[in-house]
Amino acid sequence: MPERAKPAMATRSSARNKNSATTIPAPAARTTRAKATTTFSTPPSLPTPPPPRKAAGRKPLANRENTDDVSEPTAKGPSKPTATTACKAAKQANAIESEREPIMAYLRIRPNVNEESSPYLTQLNAASVRMTDPQEHGNPSSRFRSSSVTPSSTYTFSHVFAANTHQADFFTKTTLPMVRDALEGQNALLFTYGVTNSGKTYTVQGGSSKGSAGILPRSLDVIFNSIEGLHGSGKYRPVRLYGVELADASDLNPPSIVPEPAVTRVLGSQMSHASSTADLDIDMTSLKLDRNYEYTVWLSYAEVYNEKVYDLLDSVQDASSRLKSSAIPRPGAPASSLVLTRAALPVKSSPAADNSDSEVGGKYISSLRQFRIETATQAKELVKLGQLHRRVFGTLANKESSRSHGMVIVKIMRCHRGEKNDPTAIQISRLTLVDLAGSERNKHTHTTGDRLKEAGNINNSLMVLGQCLQVLRSNQRKVSMSLNQEGEGKAGRMDTRDIKQTLTIVPFRHSKLTEILMDYFAGDGRVVMIVNVNPYDTGYDENSHVMKFAALAREVYVNPLPAPVHRAPAPTVGPGKTIGKMIKKLGPLTLNDPEIAPQPFRRKVTISMGGESGGRKASEAILEVLEVSEPEEEGGEEDDEDNTPINPLVDALFDEIEYLRLQLYESEMRCALAEAEVRDEVMMEMEERMADMEDMYTRRLAREIEQHEAKTNAKIDMLQRSGQVGSPIKRAPPQRVRDDSTEEEGEEEDVELSLIQEDDEEEGPSEESSSGEEFDFDKASSRASSSSPLAKKKAMSTSSLHKKQSLVSREIREPRPFIPDGSMVPSDTEYAKMTDTETGDETEDGEAQEADSAMASDEGADSEDGSDDDDDSEDWMPDAVPIPKAKSIRPQKPKVLTNKNRITDLTQGVQQMGIEDDLDNDDSMIIQPRKLAAAVGSGPRKVKRLTGSTPLVREEQIEQMSLAMDKLAGGKTIRRYVT
Ligand SMILES: Nc1ncnc2c1ncn2[C@@H]1O[C@H](COP(=O)(O)OP(=O)(O)OP(=O)(O)O)[C@@H](O)[C@H]1O
C-alpha cells in the first residue's frame, strides 16, 4: 500500500524527521475468509460520516518546505503566481478541504423520569431542536436574565436522537462506524458532553437491564466478534502513543482480573455484582474484515480527576501493580479504615521516532497500564472494574455525579499475516471513548472547599477543550482563506510560513484532558461528540452552553484518514534498556525520594455497603485515599513537543496570551455570575414594589368606588326627597313610579327606592318628612358626603357648584307660590330671565303681569287635571308623582308670600340656600350680589344697581334690598321661598 503524506498542522512539530519512515509494500489483496454473523451496513437515512477516502493523492497542507508548487519569495518580494501555480494551489486547497470532515455532533435527549415536568426542548426534525426557556412564560424575571443566554434558540446537529432511541440503534448509528475505522487502522475518538444527570454514563456504559448496554460494551463485543479467528500472537505490544515493543511474559498471560485484595474486602458485594452483569448483554454485530490480517487488542482505563491522571486498572493484580493499600489501621482511625495510595501519572510527548509519519505529535499517559484482551467478556470485566474504581476514588464523596473524566483506550494492533514478524509493519490504531464529567458550573452545584476545587478543575478542562476547538477553527479558517486567495491568484497572498506565523497556538497544554486528546483534534482521526441533554430538569442555561459548544465543535475539521495510519518503526532496544520494563522504571522510583516527591493529596471517603436492599447488615468502611502527584519529568526524550520552536519569545508571548485569555474567561464568568445575582436582586425588589403599588391602587380604587356610591346615594336621596317636599310621604307604587321606557331604568328606580327606604329606616321617622317640613339640602348633602374623604376634598372646590345645584334643587323641591289671582309666580330662573331684560318699572310691571297671567294659564291647564288647586299646597300634588330626574324636573306650585314677613323670609331664604359666603365676627352676613339676585329672582346687574357698586351686601342692607326687591316685584309680593 502506498505511503500517504500527512497534512501539515498548526503545531510546532511539523519539521519532524521524514526519512525514517519505512515504507513496506502492501501485499496484494486476497480473498477474505471472514464469516461475519452480522454484516454492518449504514442505514441510508443516517447522516453518517463520509466513507473513508483513499488518501493516495493527499498533499501536505501547503507547506513550502514540502512542495515545489509555490515559488519561493525573491528578494524583491513574493513572486506573482502564474496561472499554473494558482490553479494547482486551488486544487490543492480543494483537495485538503475535501479530505477533511467536521467533528460529528450527535444530540441525545434523555427520557423523562419525572412525569410531571414538560421538556423545554422540542425536536424540529432529524437534525435540529429548539430550546425555549421554561421561565420565559409567566415569569417576569426572564426579562432580567443574563444577556448571554437567549430565551429561545434552534440548534443543529449531525443527527438528533429522540428520548425513545434504543441503545442498540444509538450504537449502530454513532459508534459502529468508528469501530470499523479502528479495525481498519484509523484512530477514532468519541466523547460525551453534557450537564450532570443528562445520561452520559448511561450512553457510554449503559444500564443494568437487558438490552441497555452502552456504546462501550457494544464496541468491545463488535471488535471481538469481528476478529474472531484473527487473533495475533501477541509478540509485540503497543507503547506510548505510536510505539511498539516486544511483549514480556506478563503481557502474554491474560490478567487475573481481581482487584487489590483490600479493595475487594471493602467492596466485595459490588465487585461480585460488577462481574456478574458483565455478560448480560451481548451485541452480536460483526464487521467484515480483511482476513489476511491478525489483530491484538489492548485495553487501558484512565481518569482525569482534579487535573491529574490516574490509572483505574492499577489495582488489577500482577507484578506491576502500584496501588498500595494497607489494612493496618492508622493511628486514631477506625478499625475499618483503609488507606489507598494512588499515584498520578505524567502525560508525556510522543517521541518523534515512534511515528515519523505523523506530524501531529500527540501525547500519551506515561505508565498507564494496558492489558491484552482476548475476549469481550475479559474486556468488559476490566471496564467494570475500572468503573468501580472510578466511583471509589472519584465519586463516592459525591455519590450522585461523576466528577472525573473517564477514558477507555482500546488499542488495536494489526499486522499482515505475511509480515507478522516485522514490527515495522504493525499498524496501531486507537479507539478512545471518553465519558466527560458534568459541565455544570459552581453556581448551580453550590460546591465549596474540595468540591469547589474539583468543580473548578472540571470546568477548567472543559473550558480549555472549548478554547482549543475555538482556536482550531480560527486557524483552519485562516489557512483556508489564504489558500483560496492563492488559488484565485489574488495579489497580496501570504507565504506559507507567514500563514503559519499568524496561526495561534492551540492551548492543548492548559489541561490534562486536552493534552491527552490533542492528537485527535490536531487531525489524527475521526472525532465524534455526543451531546447529552436532559430537558426536563432545571439547567436551561447550562444546556444552552452545551449546545453552543456542540455548534463550535461542528465547525472544526479533522482528518479521518484510512489505514495505514501509523507504521511503527522498529522497536529500539538500547543497552541497559529492557524492552517492556521502561514504563515501570518511572513513577515509583521518584516517589520514594521524599525530596522530590510532591506532597500527596489526602482525602477520606466513606463507603456504605449492604443494608436493606442487599438484605445484609449495613456496614461502613472509611477509605483514605492518598493521591500522589505525578513525578517531575526527567527531560531528554520526554521533553515537550517543541522540537522546532518558532521563536522562544513568540512562544512565551503565545503562552502569555493564553494565560490572559484564561483570566479573561474567568473574569467574564465571575462578572456573569455577579450580573445574574444583581439582576435577581433587582428583580425581587421590583416585584416587591410592584406588589406594593398594586395594593395601593386596589385600596384607592375601592375607596373611590365607595365614595361614588355614597355620592350617588346622596343624589338619589336628594332627588327623591325633592319630589316629596311639603307633603307627607306619598310614594307611588313602583309600577307607577317606573318609567316605561326601559326595563333597566325601572330596575334603577327600584334600587333607588329601596335605598331611600333604607335611609329612612336608618334615620328613623324623619321629622321633616313626617311634618312636611322642608328637607335641608345642604345638611343632607354634607351628611351623605361626610363619610367620603374624596367628597370632603372635592367639596372645597365644588362648593360653588353645590350652591348652584341647591338653587335648582330648591326650585324643584319648593313649589312656586301662586299669585292670589290664580296665576303662578314664575320660577327663579324664569323670573331672573324676565327681570334681566327689564329696562324700567313700567315695563317690569307689565311683563310681570304678563308672566303672571302666563303662569295662571299654566295653572289653569293644571287645574283641568282635576287637582284641588285652592286647598293647601300639600294637596295639589298628584298621588303619583314620577320621580323626577335632574334634567326633567318641572317647577312645582309656588307659595304666596306676604309683605309683612318678607324680611324674615329673605334672610331665612338666604340662610337656607346657603348662599352666604361668610359669617363675620359681628354676625353680619356677607352675601354675593349675584347669589342674592338669584335668590330673590332678580338679575345681578339690577341688584348691583340698587345696592350700589359694592359687591358685598351686609345684613343691615337687606332691608334696603328688600325694598328694592319689592319695587322690582311691583309692591305686590316678593317671590321667594319660605319655610
Ligand atoms: N436514555 C436513557 N434511558 C433511560 N435512562 C436513562 C437514559 N439516560 C440516562 N438515564 C438515567 O438517568 C440517570 C442519570 O444518567 P447518568 O448517570 O448517565 O448521567 P450522567 O450525565 O452521566 O451524570 P454525571 O455526569 O453526574 O455522571 C441514570 O439513572 C440513568 O439510568
From TrEMBL:
Check the record and name the SMART domains matching this protein.
KISc
Q: Where is the composition biased (Basic residues)?
A: 791-805
Q: Which UniProt keywords apply?
A: ATP-binding, Microtubule, Motor protein, Nucleotide-binding
Q: Is Nucleotide-binding tagged as a keyword?
A: yes
| Positions of region (Disordered) | 1-85, 709-903
Q: Which Gene3D superfamilies match?
A: Kinesin motor domain
What molecular functions are annotated in GO for this chain? Answer: ATP binding; ATP hydrolysis activity; microtubule binding; microtubule motor activity
Q: Where is the composition biased (Pro residues)?
A: 44-53
Compositional bias (Polar residues) at which positions?
11-20
Does Nucleotidyltransferase show up as a keyword for this record? no
Residues bound to ATP: G194, V195, T196, N197, S198, G199, K200, T201
Taking every annotated instance into account, which residue ranges of this chain make up the domain Kinesin motor? 102-556
User: Of which family is this protein a member?
Assistant: Belongs to the TRAFAC class myosin-kinesin ATPase superfamily. Kinesin family.
Can you name this protein?
Kinesin-like protein
